[in-house]
# Entry
Amino acid sequence: MSKTVRAKIRSEFAFMRGNLLTLIVSWLFVYFTFSLVFSFESPYFRALGAPPSIIGLMGSIGAATLGLVRIPGAYIADKYGRKQIIVTMTFMIAVSYLFYIFAPTWRFVLIGMVLSNLSLIYQPALDAILADSVPPEKRGMGYAATNVIPNIPTIFAPATAAFMVETFGLVPGMRIVYTVVFFCLMAAAVIRLLFLKETLDTPQKIKLAEMKAAFRNSLSAIAEAWRDMPPTLRFLTIAFLVSAFEEPMFRMFTSLYVFDMVGVSEMEWGLVNTASVAITLVLGFPLGKIVDKIGRKRSILLANLLYIPASVLFLYSGSFAQLLVVFMVFSVGGCLIMPAYNALLADMIPREKRGRILGTIVTLNILATVPSSTLGGFLYDVNPVHPFVFAIILGIAVSLIILFTVKEPKTRER
# Structure
C-alpha cells in the first residue's frame, strides 16, 4: 500500500477519535451480544413455556417499560449530562442478564427484560453524545462506522450460538450464550467508565429526588419538542412511527418462522445470520459513503425498494439457499437505511435541542411497538404468515410518506 493511499485512508477516518472511538469499541462487545442471542431468543422463550402470543406480550411489556423510562431519559440527557447515566445503566443492563441465564420459566426472563429496559433510560444520552461527536460533513460515514465496525466480531456470533444450541441443546446452550452476554456487557461498561468524556458544557449531578419532577417536566418537553420540529421533521417522525410499528413483526417472530415454516436447521440459520453480518462488513462503508453522495432521502427509498420485495420472497422461502439470498438483501438495505435515517435526523436537529428531540422521536417509536408486538404474537398464533404480510403493507406506507412529504434541509446542523 502506497503512502498516498495510507494518507488518504487516514484522512478519510480522521474523525474517528475521542467519544466516537470509545463508543465504537464498547459496541464491539454490545453488538456481539445482540448477534449471539437474536437467532435463538424467541425459540428459547418458547422452550421455557411461552407460546407466540406470550412472546409478543413479553415484547410489549419490555417496549412499554422502555418507552416509560425514555421520557425522563431525554430530559436527563440535556440537563444532567451524558456520561454518568450511560456508564451506570450499562452496568445495570449486564446484571439484568443474570435472570436470562438462570431462568426456570419465561416469567423470570420477563423480570430480566423489564430490568434491562429500565436500564435503557440512558439511550437518549447515548444518541445525543453520538450526534455530538460526528462532524456534519462526515455523518453518513460516521454513522456507517457505528454500523459496520462494531459488527466485525459479530460475524462469528450466529454460528457460535448455533454450535452451542446444537451441541448442548436449546435451553442449556442458550444459558451459556447469555453468560457470554453478561461478561461482554460488563466489558462495555468498564470501557465507557474509563474513556467516555462528557459533551454537555455544564452537566448537573443526578439527584434521585428530582426524578419525579423530571418525569413531569419531560412530558411537557415532548410536547415542546414536537412544536419545535419543522414540518418535514414531523413527517419523518410519522414515518418512523409506522416503521416502528412494523419492526416487531419481523424481529420477534422471524426465528420462529424459519424453524416452523422454512424448515432450516439451527446451524443453517446461524450461517444465514453470519452471511448477513458479512454483507454489512463488506458494504457498510461504501454504502455509507453513498448516503453522503446521493442524499439521505434517496438512500432511504432505495433501501425500501430492496426491503419490500425481499420480505415477499421471505414468505415463499422453502430452503436454506432462498433464505440466505433474502437476508443478504436485507443486509444491503440495512447498510443504507440506518446511516441515512440517523444522518437525516442529525442534519435537521440543532445541537442544543438534540437530546430532547431525539429522545422524543425514539420514545414515540418505542411506544408504537407496544401494541405491535402483542398483535404480532396473536397473528402468528392464527397463521405464521400474517404478521409478515402486515409488516410488508406498513413498509409500503413508510416509503410513500418519505417519498411525498420528507425534504432534506439545505443547511445541515452542526
Observations:
- The chain has a mean pLDDT of 86.
